[in-house]
Each structure stands twice: as C-alpha cells, then as structure tokens.
C-alpha cells in the first residue's frame, strides 16, 4: 500500500499544539507546497505525482473473478486539496479535538497492470469529488511531555470513478462495466482501507513528525521560503 511519510504530511495541519485552528490550516497549506516542489533537506520528495508501492487487486465475486498486479503506480493531484476543519475543543483544554474534511476535485491513479492474459498495459483510474473525512484528537505538549497523538479517524468517499487502459498502439479504451467500477469504489470506501489510512497517519505523526520535532523544521522551511507558503 502507500508509504507512511506522505500520509503523515497530509495530517500536518493538526500537529502544531492545536491551540489555533487558523495556524493549523496555514501549516497544511505549507505542507501542500512542500509536497509539490519537494524539500530534500527534510526528506520530502515531490508528490506531483506521488509514487506508490506495488499492489494486487482481485475479486472472487462471480462473474467478475479476476486478479491484477499493478506496478509503477502514481497518484497525480495529491497536494491539490481543499481543507476545512472545525475545532471541537477549547484552546485552554489539554486535548485538542478536530473534525476535518480534505477534498479533491480530481485525482488520478496510473499504473502498469499485469494478469494472466495481459502482459503489460497502462491502466488509469480517475476519481472526481473525493473527500477524506474524520476526527483527530491530540494531547498537547507541555513542559513535561512532547504530547501524544490519541486518535485519527478517516472515511474515504468519492462520487464518480472512471477506469481505462492504454494499449500498445496508444489507444485509450474504456470498457470496464459498472460492476467493475462498483468493486473499485467499494474497495476505496471499505473499512479495511479506512482503518489502514488512519493507522498510517497515526504512526507517521507520532513517530516521524511529532516525537522528532520534524514538524517545526517544516514550519522553519515555510518561514525561509515564503512564496506561496503559509503566512505566520
């Protein structure tokens, strides 16, 4: 599945002691810029597009019984989100709690696909009006503790999916039946994927960004590179 690091960057809006929602939104805007241009000094590659790990996609539901292996997977449009959030806690509370929504108008996955009958084709899935919704809870840092990530919830929804592949003659073919598209949508919106994403966000924030203080290195990068980044 997907790498831990990029999912952690998605959630950076909430890793700033969470005493000010506007500051969190500004840091998220900065994270978007960092992902678009890449920041090698922080170990952030360009995410335009993001390169993902190989996966196997299969179904045992008759009559759509298949098994596809995907490699060279890319996700185009990842940093081009719109973020909204509601702070559910008071600034004076020791825990910060948010409801959030990340929205993408258009994102696109591409890959090489293999199965028993097809040696290699270029496969593409396009998603319109995609949202990640969820809640986030963190115990804020103080003089005795760096703080703790307590909860990350994610629900993935998308309204329209199209799938196609490009042949060796560079002809784009859209022949997948509605049943196949429905399987893709069910996989995307499944509890398994939702729980996986939430776990990866949690682990990345807690281990990669929060405990190491790396989020503040990103804040410093924003301050040193103000063009199109967050304003402080």
TrEMBL record:
The keyword Transmembrane does not apply. Gene3D superfamilies: Haemolymph juvenile hormone binding protein (3.15.10.30). Keywords: Signal. InterPro entries: Haemolymph_juvenile_hormone-bd, To_sf. Residues 1-18 form the signal peptide. It comes from the Eukaryota. This is Juvenile hormone binding protein. It comes from Psylliodes chrysocephalus.
